[in-house]
Amino acid sequence: MKNKSSLAMENVTVRTKKPLRTLYKGVKLPVLRTLFGSLLYLVGTLIVASQADTVAAISVGQFKDFSPIVTYALMCILGYVFSYASVVADLGFVELAANIRKKIWKKVMRLPFSYYDRESPNRVLSRVTSDPEYSYLPFKLLQLFFTLLAFLPIVLAGEAAIGELTPYLLIGFIATIGIMLFSARFSERGAVYVAGKLAAFTAFLAERFGRIRFIKAMNSEEKENAAGLRCIEDRYEADKYNAMANTLVMFGQTFLIFVLFTVAFLIGSMLIRNGRVQSGAALAAFYAYGNNLVLVFQFFAQFPSVFSATKGGSKKIVSILEEEEEDPDQGKSEFTATGDLCMDKVSFGYNDREVIHGISTHIPKGKITAIVGPNGSGKTTVLRLLNRLYPDFGGNIRIGEDGNEVSLRAWRDRFGVVSQNAGLFEGSVRDNICYGVRDVKEEELRAVISLACLEDLIASHEGGLDFNVGFNGEKLSGGEQQRIAIARAMLKNPDYLILDEATANLDPVTEEKIRTGMKALIQGRTAIIVAHNYRTVAEAQHVIVMRNGTVEDEGTVEELKTRNAFFKAFAEA
Amino acid sequence: MTETRNQSIWKNFIHLIRQIRLPVLFLASAFLLNLGKAAIELTIPEKIAGLADLEFTAVNSPVVKTAVSICLTLFALALAEFVGGLVSTYITYIAKARIHRNFQAAASRKVFSLTAAEAEARDPKEFISRITTDTGFVSDFLIDLLVIEIPRLYFITSTLVKVSRMGNGSLLLGFILIIPVIVLGALWSGRVTYKSQTRLQNSIARLTARLAEKVEHAEIIKAYNKTEDEIADGDGFIDEMKAAQKKTTLAAAFNQLIANILYAVPTLIIMTAGAILLLGGDISTAQFIAYFGLGATYQRYIADHLTLWVLGKKAQGATLRISEILTLNEDRGGEQKAVRPADLRFEHVSFSRGGNKTLSDVSFTVKNGNKFAVVGGSGAGKSTLLNLIEQFYRPEQGRITLGGVDISEFEISSYRNLFSYLPQNAPGFDGTVRDFLCYGSGTLHSDEELKKFLKEVDMLEAVEVNGGLDYEVGPGASKLSGGQRQRLAVARMLLAGAKMVLADEATSALDYEGSGRIAALIDRYAAGKTRIIVAHDLSTVQDADTILVLNKGRVMGCGSHDELKNCCPEYRRLLTAGEGAKQ
User: Fold this and answer.
1) CA B382, CA B375: separation in Å to the nearest integer?
2) Is A210 within 8 Å of chain B by CB?
3) Which contiguous run of DSSP H or E holds residue A386?
4) Which of A298, A309, B298, B470 is the most buried (most CB within 10 A)?
5) What is the pLDDT of residue A341?
6) pLDDT the model gives residue A554
7) Range of A141's domain?
8) Residue B33 pLDDT
9) Which of A125, A145, A162 delimits the end of a domain?
């Protein structure tokens, strides 16, 4: 027995040796619980399977009193109770999934920002939320293998079994597992196919039904209806594929019974002819016996789906675990230099495509510098290079003599950011203002609140500073969110400040409201601004005009107005 | 009372089925195959009982022949059941997919043809779940009812008849007694599974929402050096989810235990009832074997029959909800197809929405070919006016005429074809810039033409930087800014080239200069055509032939800029407010 189980383990691990090691490294594995739970599961299955003989005898009327029925009833319940107790293993699996989840979450948070550019947030999230569900499946698979191996001898040892027929039954049953494995792939694909088409249709309808008046005004009801029908037709195609896949699954399930009939009666009829079987009752008993085994065998029907999910799920997780992390503490942690922020021949690209081509420029200390340029010219990328959100660039970005060798943590500590999306987190106003700063003194907090003009906000929301702003700050208006973001940046007290379209989403009245706070924030710092509207840019002392990933021109507002075509148009628009 | 309600549900259900074409051939084949399967399942236990009765010692005795022939019959029956079962499974799935498709098509067509008022009175999500989910419930029920239920009842009644013919009442009693046990089992497992699943779903949703926030704000987290804190924070949520998962796992295992026991009980009841009689010598062994064999299948059929009940419950609600949509008003209009630009008149029109009077007794005339502006503060009724012209809504009192004919007499799409509409916020759908520009014009324009108009609205450079006409604008054209969408919408309108222009705050997202340029562009292209323009920025419409001043749904004045400046206080108020905003 011991030999067999270690053989099973080898089977699993050889297949996915390295990925599993990556997956489980540093995670506490629920080995004991799995073993104990599996043992209970095994005992439960064996108890139920052991009743095959009793059931066979009962169903052909071979009993003298009620004792076999009572035995059968008691053993069934006992078997079920043992199966229930095997939940110990399942609880261990939950524990493992949570540990893997934490491991991936840690990884996700430590990934460089460029990863988030590459992968959609939903994909990243499903790595943490749903994919770890599959992480325990190798253990589950092990458990099933173990049970299956122990179960087979029972089939051979049954009294009702006819020695010559049983091997055929076994071969047939094992072949069925093969069919199930085969069909599980199709049904999984079918489910994904249908879900995809349904999602496309839902997205289509959601977009259309939100704009029904517009469609009518454009006289496009018929056209949209036809497009809807195309989505429905696509879904129908997916359903047809699924019908095929589900029929295959059905094939696997009903094949068990068909095998039983074939063995018991087709092969059985040959044995009758040869005189090897001399009683119809023996065949009937064999059939009843096989029927009970079919019931037990259906326990293993989960086997194939477990198997294919294991392969897919852990692959995805492993791929994220193999991504390179960024280490915020690597490099020099002493970093107090002040001065102009300089970019020396900085270039940067994503996926082999260079988007910033050797920029060299100065951002003067203590002044406001605006970066302008058409969409796609690289403004936001430059901002992200400046606070080293993208740390892998060519060239050097430095303050005084300190540049790339400074650790990410030390560098980023000197920068504050306010962007278009305020980026508030679920939690109190206080937590959001104090984000990123430890041991805030009450008077500091008061000072910042007053400078960012937050008193009225705090007074008007229930709980004041403890008011919960909701997910993404959704319980506050855009202007309120932005003022909190300003206060947050102020409290951090950075020497360098990055403002990326900080007021782009606000209406003019609100923009006016936060102006005072914004001025207080910029006061005495080196500020780098990207803005769409000219009025904000006009306040800058230095302007950099970008085009196609290079610096096209730089100078004061007045200089550029006279000599740079883009800036002129921008100023006059 | 319940009687009539049930009747109306069946009436609705039948009415619903009449809306679609049923795949009759598929349904009939699947039905026959299922009937055959039930017949085979009725026969098998008797055959096995017959076989069990035989003893044979001599190799070539006639008994051996009988035994062999019974064995071969059993194999043939099993083969037929196996193959027939697969074919019927496939056909049933296809039939269900077809019915579902046809229901979806009917429901979706209906929703697209609703009047704007009906469509907007409901949450779009509601329509979506009617079309995608509810139609599925109805299809599932219909299939089960048409294809599976009658063979199932045939098996159940035949079994009961056979058992009662064995000549003993207590056998029949055993079969009837197990029904409540099976019902109990089904109800139990349904409820417990549902409850624990809901709990887990909720905890996953909470975890996802919280982590999503962090993933979306990765930039802030990194900029504030908060990575480690966020890891610890996330771990807390993961632990919460783990606790919920453990509860669910325990509940599911316990549920399985109860379900297993409830499954075993009917078998034991049948076993015991048969055993009493067999041991008492009231039935033969062969009868016992047949009886016991039928019992196992009977148990399965009763459990399946319950699924029809569950499906019926779901379909009942779904039927009512879909039927409700089918009764909503469609957007049709009148018969008259010939429609030409002419004077448009409002005659004492009143309209209210949500209890608020948005227009009261409004009368005015838009002369054919004029530039006609509508101004007023927010809530003045400007957009309502355009909605009435487009016939999204109908006036409560008074009437609107075009060339003297009530506009409701025109066939609706011919009528709407007359207008180019520039709606507020310039909407667009997922697709390319090209799709955006060609939307609604019914024709495909050449690239040169598209580019010409892009240039006119100062968007050519922005589009080309982003990859040209094939640039994907994203769902709801969300990758474009409000101003870019408005510019493209103007290009789209100019391309469509209709006979009358309706513009609702068409340049609200543009700055002063841009808004003036676009207004001039529209005037240039649409010179000589009727233009009805709703504007918040008075400076772009001062040259209008007529300006209508609205306040709280009432007409405060109507005339040229110069006339109004002198004699309409409301207009002067709007004028000064506008000047103030610009400075």
Assistant:
1) 7
2) yes
3) helix A379-386
4) B298
5) 92
6) 92
7) 1-162
8) 97
9) A162
Segments of chain B with pLDDT less than 50:
1-2, 580-583
Contacts of B279 in chain A (CB under 8 A): 63-66
Q: With the C-alpha atoms ordered A105, A108, A110, A116, is the resulting torsion angle positive or negative?
A: negative
Which two tokens mark B436?
Answer: 């955006």
Q: Which residues contact A134 (CB under 8 A, 6 or more apart)?
A: A309, A310, A312, A313, A314, A317
Give the gyration radius of chain A's Cα atoms. 35
Please list every residue in chain B whose beta carbon sits closer than 8 Å to the beta carbon of residue A266.
71-72, 75
Please judge whether A216 and B465 are an interchain contact, meaning their C-beta atoms are less than 8 angstroms apart: no
Tell me the C-alpha distance between B156 and B97, whole Å.
Answer: 28
Q: Could you tell me the end-to-end alpha-carbon distance of chain B, in angstroms, rounded to an integer?
A: 69
Tell me B432's DSSP state.
B
Closest chain A residue to B277, measured at CA: A61
CB of A561 within 8 Å of any CB in chain B? no
Which residues in chain A are closer than 8 Å to B461, comparing Cβ atoms? 374
Query: Pick from B492, B111, B513: which is nearest to B321 by CA?
Result: B111
Q: Which amino acid is at B237?
A: F
Beta bridge partners of B365: B345
Rounded Cα distance between B229 and A436, Å, is: 9
Q: What residue of B is the nearest CA neighbor of A438?
A: B226
- Residue B380: closest CA among B547, B546, B516: B547
Instruction: Provide the CA B444 distance to its chain's centre, in angstroms.
Output: 30
Nearest to B286 by CA among B464, B547, B51, B445: B51
The ipTM (two decimal places) reads 0.84
Give the phi and the psi of residue A554 in degrees, each rounded to 5.
-150, 155
Q: How many CB atoms lie within 10 A of CB B290?
A: 23
Give one word for B344, left, alpha or beta, with left for phi > 0 and alpha for psi -120 to 50.
beta
In B138-188, the DSSP E strands lie at: none
Q: Is B534 helix (H, G, I), strand (E, B) or coil?
A: strand
For chain A, positions 358-387, list CB contacts with chain B under 8 A: 374-376, 384, 387
Choose among A341, A371, A357, A385: nearest CA to A501. A371
Residue A452 lies in a domain: yes
Q: Which residues of A touch B217 (CB under 8 A)?
A: 421, 423, 425, 472
Both tokens of A142, joined, read 């092990």
Q: Is there a domain that residue A504 lies in? A: yes
**Domain stop point among A162, A186, A204:** A162
Q: Is residue A406 part of a domain?
A: yes
- Biggest CA pair distance of chain A: 112
Q: Structure tokens of A500?
A: 């990326």
Q: How far apart are CA A185 and CA A169, in angstroms?
A: 25
Domain-located, residue A372: yes
Q: Are B47 and B73 in contact (CB under 8 A)?
A: yes
Regions in chain A scoring below 70 on pLDDT = 1-18, 299, 301-314, 351-352, 375-376, 504-510, 572-573
Encode B86-103: b = buried (16+ Cβ within 10 Å), e = exposed: bebbbbbbbbbbbbbbbb
pLDDT of residue A308: 61
pLDDT of residue A203: 87
Chain B interface includes A67 (CB < 8 A): no
Using CA atoms, how far apart are residues B458 and B463, in angstroms rounded to an integer? 10
The three-state secondary structure class of A543 is strand
d(C-alpha B559, C-alpha A367), whole Å: 53
Q: Is B568 helix (H, G, I), strand (E, B) or coil?
A: coil
- State the angle between helix axes of A166-209 and A302-321 in degrees (0 to 180), rounded to the nearest 10: 60
Instruction: Supply φ then ψ for residue B501, to 5 degrees.
Output: -110, 130
A139 SS3 class: helix
Query: Could you give the number of structural domains in chain A?
Result: 2
Give the residue among B139, B339, B562, B509 at the shortest CA–CA distance from A507.
Answer: B509
What angle, rounded to 10 degrees, do the helices at A52-59 and B285-326 form?
100
Distance CA B397, CA B174 (A): 72
Pairing of strands A496-500, B344-353: unpaired
